[in-house]
Amino acid sequence: MKIKLAMLIAALALVYLPATARADIAPPQQPPGANLEPGAETTQVRMLAETVVMQIQPGGKKNLGEAQVTADFHMRNLGAEPERMAVRFPISANDGRFNIVEIRNLQVQVDGRSVNTRRIQGEDPFYPRDPVPWAEFDVSFPPGKDVNIHLAYTLDGTGYDPFTEFYYILSTGAGWKDSIGSADVVVRLPYEAQIYNVLLQASADYWYTSPGAVLDGNEIRWHYDDLEPAPEDNLEIELVAPSFWKKVLAEQANIERNPRDGEAWGRLGKAYKESAFFSKAMRTDEGGKALFDLSVQAYEKCRELRPDDAEWHAGFGELFYLRYYFGWENPDDYRDMTRAVELVKRAYEINPASPKALELLETFGWEGYVSKQGDGYDFLLLTATPTPYQTATPPSTPTSTAAPLPSETPTPPASDTPEAAHTPTDTPTTAATLEIEPTPTAERTAAQPAAASPVDPEGGSPLYVCGTPVLVVAAWLGLRRRLEEKD
Asked: What is the CATH number for 388?
């Protein structure tokens, strides 16, 4: 049986994996922003204060955004003797794919005057055993006199669309005398910083912004006093990529101009959905949970305005399937999966040729929730006890409550219960509150012909796990469970 399982996985990989896909143990990283590091000698120079500003904007490599970084360091020689040293700054790092990537457009000023830099070899910030290029420049520190060092450079975002990451390493500043008197790191976004587009850490999971971040207007801030920087103090900033979030804002604006545009509601629901899931997991932060509920509300409004559009029904079903698949907090709770099957069933009734519905039905078939019967399907989860490797009968379908578009002052939801979606409590920017209607389950009659769907609005942006569409991964994982039970 294990041989058959291996052959199945290999076959799926040949069919679904892009030819250029490569599996990585971690997302690629860019050369980080970092504090200055003194030369090898012991120094009496202290970093009294530092201010780092990262201005995030669209663009960058793979359209994951870039940061225009300025870093100002206020230094003072506390000793009795002058010091002249070669100050060091990391400009490169291994990107995780064995490519040495450098920051761009580095400029250095000392007390307002531009200075030249030279390339040296130093330890990789992420892989210390590997030498990579650093920048080095000479600075004189007279005793008792303040010296100001200013750096400016461009930093590319990294990660997996639609998310991007930026880093700033504080620990390289540990070589200066005593502690860092005060440190401020400010990340500025081209729009308001919210729990929806800034991933604030909810647990010890990876891919979240470092603890201590404060959201203030369009800024994310950290402040430290008397900091003895260690590796655990290094900062990670996890965001929805600015180019993607601007699309979300554009769809919100479309709806405010025309709240009866069902397509715009569908596109907004899809954008919220894609912002709520990583390539390998569901966001567990409050913003991720709220985005799921906002996606529910947008899809419900789309379904109200376009009741015969199969693709949006199917895309809505995918939303519940993804939460069921990635959640697994209680594998015997089938409410999300039941809702997913009901919505995809309705999409199939509207248009049996719906690409999105057929894609999901194939996945549900691998998982044992539906069965292909001739030219149609038997929706087992809606009519019978689930497959043997699952033990509980599905509970009733969950309901959802209305939620507004994200506003300037979002309020995180208080809890996450299966019975009702999270509902931010801020005032909606549109005039009307969304009305939720039950999911239609009636069979399509002969008087209800299948709607044509020449374009799949839900296509083109599938979620991926290491290069493989997540629905494909879910399919073979489900089949693997069943095959293993037969061994």
From this structure: 1.25.40.10
263 and 189, same domain (yes or no)? no
> CB of 360 within 8 A of CB of 462?
no
Taking the CA atoms of the chain, what radius of gyration do you get in angstroms? Answer: 27
Give the number of residues written for the chain: 487
CATH number, domain containing residue 54: 2.60.40.3680
Is 282 within 8 Å of 326 (Cβ atoms)? Answer: yes
* Contact present, 199 and 205 (Cβ < 8 Å): no
- Residue 7 included in any domain: no
355-377 exposure pattern, b = at least 16 Cβ within 10 A, e = fewer: bbbbbbbebbbbbbbbeeeeeeb
Q: How far apart are CA 459 and CA 462, in angstroms?
A: 7
197 with 260, same domain: the answer is no
Same domain, 200 and 327: no
Chain position carrying tokens 């519940």: 320
Q: Are residues 209 and 306 located together in one domain of the fold? A: no
Does 106 reside within a domain? yes
In whole angstroms, give the CA distance from residue 166 to residue 29: 8
Token pair listed for 358 = 């057929």
CB atoms within 10 A of CB 53: 17
Question: How does pLDDT run along the chain (487 residues), one tens digit per residue?
Answer: 433 333 333 333 333 333 222 222 234 456 677 888 887 668 999 999 999 999 999 988 888 999 999 999 999 999 999 999 999 988 887 766 666 678 899 999 999 999 999 998 888 777 777 788 889 999 999 999 999 999 999 999 988 889 999 989 898 899 999 999 999 999 999 999 999 999 997 655 567 899 999 999 999 999 999 999 998 898 999 999 999 999 999 999 999 999 999 999 999 999 999 999 987 788 989 999 999 999 999 999 999 999 999 999 999 999 999 999 987 667 678 999 999 999 999 999 999 999 999 999 999 999 899 999 998 999 999 986 544 333 333 333 333 333 345 443 333 333 333 333 333 333 333 322 233 233 333 332 333 333 333 456 786 545 543 334 555 555 444 544 444 444 4
Q: What is the pTM of this model?
A: 0.75
Q: Which domain holds residue 293?
A: 243-486
CB 205 within 8 A of CB 282: no
Number of structural domains (the chain) is: 2
